[in-house]
Amino acid sequence: MSWFTFNLQDFSISFLSILFEGVPFMFIGTLLSGIIDAFVPSETIEKILPRNQIAAIGLSGVLGVVFPMCECGVVPVIRRLIRKGLPVSSALTYLLAAPIVNPIVALSTFAAFRGQHPGMVTSMRLLMGFGVACVCGMILQRIPSGALLNRAMLASLRKRPTPSRAHAQHVHESVYAGVSSERNVVFPIVPAEEIVHLHDEAHAEKRYGQKIVGAIRCAAFDFLDVGFYLIIGAAIASVFNTAINKEVLLPFAGNHFLATTGMMVLAGLLSLCSTSDAFIAANFLTFPVTAKLAFMVFGPMMDMKLLFMYGLVFKKRFTFTFALGLFVFIALLCLALAPFLR
Amino acid sequence: MRILGRILAPLTLLEWGGILTYFYFSGRITAFLHPMFRPLVLVTGILLLITAACVAIFREEESAHEHEHDGEDSEDRHQHSHSHDGLSLGGLLAFVILLLPLALAAKISPDSYGANLIKNRGLVEDIRSIPGAASSFARRAKSVESTDAPTTTEQEPSLTITADATPSSPKKYIGVPQQTPIPGQNTDSESALPSNDYEQPIPPSPSASPPNEFVNESLKPDKSGRIKTEIIDLLYAAQEPFTRKDFEGKDVELIGQVVPNKLKAGAKSTAPTGSFKLLRLVMVCCAADAMPVAVKIETKLPLAEVREMQWLRVTGRVHYRPRSKADSDGIDYGDQPEPVIMADSIKKISAPREKYLY
Question: Which residue of B has its CA nearest to A202?
């Protein structure tokens, strides 16, 4: 039996079901993004967020408990929030943590691992999700955002109103770190027509009805933006979801290193929703629990569809480096934990 | 190209919204999503249609008023965000990807998985692999439990009909235990079920099998004396001594799709010819995470003209017997026996409306 047998009809079912599952949540995300764009003034985020960067990152890590988001919906929201002045480090922390550190995922993980130490697995998953997200946020905080964000994002940031720019100078290392001249970071000069959805200043005087129309339009174009990548991601994921023979993975079970990395590669390829991936992980009875944890922590942070969707916010090179770094980090973490979790 | 862009954006939203609402109302959605998520598809579909209308109607107003840089309208800028070279060809390609695959997939999808997928996913025959699903049976049992106290008088008559010999004794045992099963419990199952227990077709001594098992509504036989059940219930019972006794030696009726006994190539087919497996797909969220669960069927009936994945209604007697080491595929089943159904009737049926177990 070959390990890879493609069937177009099976593929189409998996493809459609991933879309049907993901589109409603993505749509909620884009609606939220549109509402933020139209109704949340730029200064609000800087006012709410703690001045201390570490505190801000920590807060972003647990924000998912209050504002649960799955990975399809979180990208458009994050994109909008960065444009509204949320520091990239905090944004990425929320992006990574929200699909794991939230009550829905905690419940589904607990349910999925019934009979396999559910309390331990659930708490480890949430803790690791939070920890990894915060560490990533702190690393990103040291990198100027000019090296992280793609051109459209940088361009829209550059166009932000001046008051918050002044404000940014005493918020150490904000998004402006990369853009402001004192950091000596050169970013590509973007023609004005590439500036995407920039409504900030004009909104102050706008009528309420216009604001709503603006929010809907904004949501619609966000939806098309993200939907494009969801389609590509869902297609690639469905190929692997239906064509890979699960048996090829079974021999890996005995070896911690192979089991962990194998499960992580699988998580990346399958691109499951973070609310249901625990059920798939629990299915791998013979695998060590740390390999399942790696699957459930890495999967919601990075998979085929997310790799494409992250491209809407970040530079391509950064996205790939980040995916690789995240893989190595989580793999090492889980391998290090392996002797303690049996 | 600009006009095309203006049409394409609302058109794409229209298509997505249309397909979502169509799948909901045509019922095709049952082949893809858990019931919990289906209303979301309808709501999203309708909202997308509204959004499409909004985008089509309010286009000019928006771009004329608020942007100093209104040299290009939103559609074009949207395309730019896909293709940073500013090529409208790239934008067009983006819309092709947004429009075509969804429509094509909706057209070619047969709405039920083929044998190929089953081979790739592998059959699950251990309920611990899908504990989240934890048996529709357990859920039903729980609902009976919760209504147990107030409705005792109503249930009593049906109990006397179905319970074997002893009429009414305290309801000490209920079909399903209240605590969730853990693998460690297999040590209990050892004491409760000696390995050769399956050779006795009738549940053994009255002390070992309490009479009030049928307190569970779902275990009540129908008029023909059969228990209507699901594959997942039989597997659930395999690791739960009390429930297992409820099934052991009983006639059951269940539906599923047929697959050959051995899915693995290379494994020699030692199974008797009148033996196959009956499977159902269990879904957690959507069809992408569907897992095939299966039980073994043995029969003396001829099965020549049945093709793979054909839906069948099987009736027969359930027996639990120890798993052979060779069949276990390296999975540690502990002392958990496997359910085998000795089929006395096998009927071809058409696919049910709800193809999945949840």
Answer: B66
